[in-house]
Amino acid sequence: MKRALITGITGQDGSYLTELLLEKGYKVYGVVRRKSKADYGTVEHLKKDIEFIYADMTDMASLIRAMKIAQPDEVYNLAAQSFVATSWEQPLATAEINAIGVTNMLESIRVVKPEARFYQASTSEMFGLVQETPQTETTPLYPRSPYGVAKLYGHWITKNYRESFQMYACSGILFNHESPRRGMEFVTRKITDAVARIKCGLQDTLYLGNMDAKRDWGYAGDYVKAMWLMLQQKEADDYVIASGETHSVREFVELAFRHAGIELEWSGEGIEEKGIDKNSGKTLVAVDQRFFRPAEVEILLGNPSKAQSVLKWERAVGFEELVRMMTEGDLARVSGEVAGNGVDA
What we know:
Its cofactor is NADP(+). By secondary structure, this protein is α/β, with parallel strands linked by helices. It has helices at about 10-25, 60-70, 85-90, 90-110, 145-165, 185-200, 220-230, 250-260, 305-310, 320-340, and strands spanning about 5, 25-30, 50-55, 75, 115-125, 170-175, 175-180, 205-210, 215, 220, 240, 245-250, 265, 275, 285. The strands form 4 sheets. A 7-stranded parallel β-sheet has the order 3-2-1-4-5-6-11, sandwiched between helices. Strands 8-15-14-13 form a 4-stranded mixed β-sheet. The chain has a two-stranded parallel sheet with strand order 7-10. Strand 13 (about 265) and strand 14 form a beta hairpin. It starts with a strand and ends with a helix.
């Protein structure tokens, strides 16, 4: 039985990866931080199948202890301060977790079990002010947020340990990947939750930032398969994992409302742009400058050809199916909450 240690196990990717590994017969250990109240996040339904270890990415001694307990064959580092907007408000904490934390994990592996295979969750945010489109494994990196900068350090220290100590250490440069398990603070889930609440009469308007920002969106359940595949290769390497297509925030909004039976038409430009319900004439979407980033990433578009040829990785869920899946999930949840509270929606 293979053994895997996952940091960040309670997040979106952690839950999908745990399900995949359990299906493959792994013994799964999950690193969690000590809190006053136990919070298993998205792995609540799997907690009986996971052995949890209390540790923190900023405390190397605790990570060494976790390694000694788990004795893993594979380590998946998914832990991060993962919300880009927060990285401007907490740049030092973001650096401690997303940069130094990766070094702590790599050192812990090197001290306890250097033959363990290591996966680092890198990000398309490292491309930032893109130098070429589409982006590949060799595209120059130009991060535009403290989050992207910290992740860039984590990416390069992983490569450095691979080359310096001959460790099996690789990075997956994952482009935006979403699901019904995505945190509410992320724009995709903010959209689908708002659509459900508007549909049920619990919210009037969805406020967003840059509607023209374009992202390469995929399904998290597909992307964790690529993480596993990276650690099954003969030699460690880095891979871009992406859908190969890009869509604007505006497109995501339109599709989400359409899946809820609401057709939008747009009026105005820039901060005056509004999304209006064609039937009722009500303004359902508006722009709020508070949600603009200090330095914007305008477009991300990945080229996954290396992963497709070497890993034989393919995605199963397309953009429209992803938006439908997320919208239907939030519609079901919000409708259930309304019914449970006896609210007349």
